[in-house]
Design brief:
The chain is an alpha+beta fold. It has helices spanning about 15, 35-40, 85-100, 110-130, 140-155, 185-195, 195-210, 215-230, 250-255; strands at about 25, 30, 70-75, 80-85, 160, 165-170, 175, 245-250. The protein has a domain at about 70-135 and about 145-255. Helix content is about 40%, strand content about 15%.
Length: about 260
């Protein structure tokens, strides 16, 4: 008996093993069906996954507070208090303490005014010497006229001598140069230069150390500015150090001042 085979496409095992899609006859037409290999790798089609959204950004960045111009590093193993500050406020506070010690009858506000005046005089002198502050353009005749007018107006005023500086007082305030009236010192501003704790610490050490000179006030008055030069903050010389901060070592100040 002769066996006849259909001419239609037949499914063979190699069609599966080769990963091919076997054709299926449907109504005289063939169409491809996905192989089990394709199903295994492709999986069932689904919706595209959405990325998880994080919490909405406020668009704001956290700002960091600036460190104040005056910082206090409280003590190392030896118990020192170091204050980062420039020289002018140190001279002002030191002069005020010296003035109060030498002239206890004066109000503290007057002593601060004296300190502010001497600090200003030193700053102007230093600024001119290094070319940071221009000298007055007034001619010599005009300067002499101003000087004579100021001398006449200030002739009846009290003279106060502190650390080799001679100042005149009017209404409890120190005058600088040809001023007609003095300017009150701003203790609140001075305090911010040191920081609250630094201000009280420096003032306390200055006043405590000055007590060792009780009975020798005249000699102290001669040496007081040299003491300041011995403990003032270290900064670069010349224009590089103008207005710069240095470290005020309060323990060093105590050793320099005390007898």
């Amino acid at each position: 008996m002769v066996t006849t085979r259909s001419k239609k496409a037949q499914t063979r095992l190699r069609d599966f093993t080769n990963g091919k899609t076997p054709p299926i006859e449907t109504g005289g037409k063939t169409k491809a069906t996905p192989s089990f290999i394709e199903k295994a790798f492709k999986g069932t089609p689904g919706k595209a996954s959405k990325k998880r959204k994080g919490p909405p950004s406020s668009g704001k960045t956290t700002s960091t507070k600036r460190t104040k111009r005056s910082e206090i590093d409280e003590g190392d193993s030896s118990g020192k208090n170091n204050i980062v500050i420039n020289r002018a406020p140190v001279l002002q506070l030191w002069t005020a303490c010296v003035t109060s010690f030498l002239h206890p009858s004066l109000e503290w506000s007057t002593c601060l005014s004296v300190g502010s005046s001497i600090s200003t005089i030193c700053a102007v002198s230093k600024g001119r010497s290094i070319g940071k502050i221009n000298r007055s353009e007034d001619d010599k005749e005009k300067k002499n006229k101003k000087r004579e007018q100021a001398k006449e107006q200030q002739k009846n005023l009290d003279i106060l001598e502190v650390m080799h500086f001679k100042l005149k007082l009017r209404d409890g305030l120190a005058l600088v140069g040809n001023e007609h009236k003095g300017k009150p010192a701003n203790e609140t501003l001075l305090r911010t230069k040191f920081g609250d704790e630094g201000y009280e610490a420096a003032k306390g050490i200055f006043q405590e150390s000055l007590e060792s000179w009780r009975g020798d006030e005249e000699e102290l008055n001669e040496q007081a500015f040299k003491f300041y030069e011995g403990f003032r903050p270290d900064v670069a010389s010349g224009q590089k150090g103008w207005g710069r901060k240095g470290e005020l070592d309060l323990e060093k100040a105590r050793k320099v001042i005390q007898r």
